[in-house]
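Think of the structure tokens as a kind of shorthand, similar to the way a musician reads notation: each symbol stands for something richer, in this case the local conformation of the backbone. In the example below we present two proteins back to back. Begin with the first one, reading the sequence and then the tokens, and try to describe in your own words what changes along the chain.
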Amino acid sequence: IGLMGPWTQPVLGEVMQGGAAERAGLKEGDLVLRIGSTEVVDGQQLRELIRASVRDGQPLEQPWRITRGGQNLTVDVRPEVVQE
């Protein structure tokens, strides 16, 4: 038996001013359909894909397929590596 959190849509929340998402043209409320070749089915998977978008300390630029205002768009997103 596996435990899962509640299903959530892969919708972007707050976009940080000056951050990687804003520089790529992403906006709060964008529905993420695909990152690279991977279809995004829920919010948990979206978070996991974002975390996995850095390999060997280097961010991987990938096209994101999103829906905004009824339009499908593709934007290139280059994550920002931040150490806390």
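Once you have a description of the first chain, move to the second and do the same.
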Amino acid sequence: TIPAVPITYKHITEAVDLMFYNFSRAKDRMRKRGYTLSGIRKLESNYNTIAKTANPHFHLIVEGAEEAEILQKYWLEYYPSAKQDAQDITPATEGTLFEIFKYQAKQVCKTGVFVAEYLDIIYQAFQGRRTLQSFGSFRKVSVEPQDALEDLYINSQEIEPQEANIEPQIQE
């Protein structure tokens, strides 16, 4: 994560552009030192209605604990005002993929408030960007169409049409 930015299109897009650039810098730096950084990167943001800020951040699944620690070290060098305890490294578990796929922007802030205008700004700033990206040797796996069909089970239920019980409102 990075320090929060004002919740404007300009501030979020500039922050995200810099995040992508710094991630690429860190990955390249690691490669030059003999490390291979592989995994999945997910761009997300939440927002704070009181401070009127957004918090764009990455969730990463990285192959290798040492690689994750080196990446964290470089990230904190690029963002010295970021809080180190906000850069959480934990071993992946069964629920880790759920964390990666659940959202691009939290619909409700920590105080339980929903602000459509803030979400709209975040989604506009994310438009046209890859919010989910593999990197390194972590690549898409091809599945033959027939294999996919064998694993696909569809349950359907016929739904009976229902009559609407709405009286037209006539204004005089």
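Compare your description with these statements about the second chain. The helical segments are 9-32, 65-78, 96-101, 116-126, 145-150.
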